[in-house]
């Protein structure tokens, strides 16, 4: 029999863990070492690796039957939809961390039997914790986030990586929207949609850890989160991803799929 846990207790433990990072991350950044993975843009640091193994330590101590699916070292995908599964991007926006020491975050989410149950995006440089609990809403630090009001694309800012869309599609999006902005960290670009500051964030090839927390934020805040065919995304697989204001979702997808499609 699988152990049962109180979600509120887990939430409190994780928030305590996040508070502990306020001491840990500055010391890791002081001794920051950067390596490349697949190519010169694919960076990883001791900060990414230490945070993931530090969180793994917490899970092993408190919840030994929970599974961890993390970017840096935990890629076993068996049975992730059974029981308690944590998905983690220990540093999202590593290029921003290395080049700017700003605009990076930690993405963490708990799925229980495949259902998004707890979500966190920690904007470390701004010391701001976005969190959500299934059925109870989404919060920024202690303040509840309001449901996002539907607006048309012409009134909204869109965000996407400008290296990955074909030029015609990119220009159609720029023409149809109010403006374009990109932070360069999928978690933080997505959070701007959650707060109503951006209309949509698109990632054509999101990994599970880039979008793990966004499922619950989207459902608690009345946002749309789908693939580009308006279908649900499998949290174990990731793939094409849009999180958007409900008023512009269809319009953005229409643009992405017309004019030769979005592929470069
Ligand atoms: P970046 O500043 O390195 O990263 C921007 C965001 O994309 C971060 O959330 C980052 O997560 C994530 N990311 C980084 N490398 C990725 C990859 N190979 N595939 C998917 N997501 C990735 O972005 P960049 O310097 O503009 O680009 C770096 C590479 O990522 C390029 O090859 C770019 O084409 C690709 N990328 C693709 C998309 C897309 O929509 N297909 C979006 C962003 C980046 P971490 O910080 O955790 O790595
Ligand atoms: Ca990432
Ligand atoms: Ca990462």
From TrEMBL:
CDD domains in UniProt: IMPase_like
Keyword check for Calcium: no
SUPFAM superfamilies hit by this protein: Carbohydrate phosphatase (SSF56655)
Gene Ontology terms for molecular function: inositol monophosphate 1-phosphatase activity; metal ion binding
GO biological process: inositol metabolic process; signal transduction
Keywords linked to the UniProt accession: Magnesium, Metal-binding
Protein name: Inositol monophosphatase
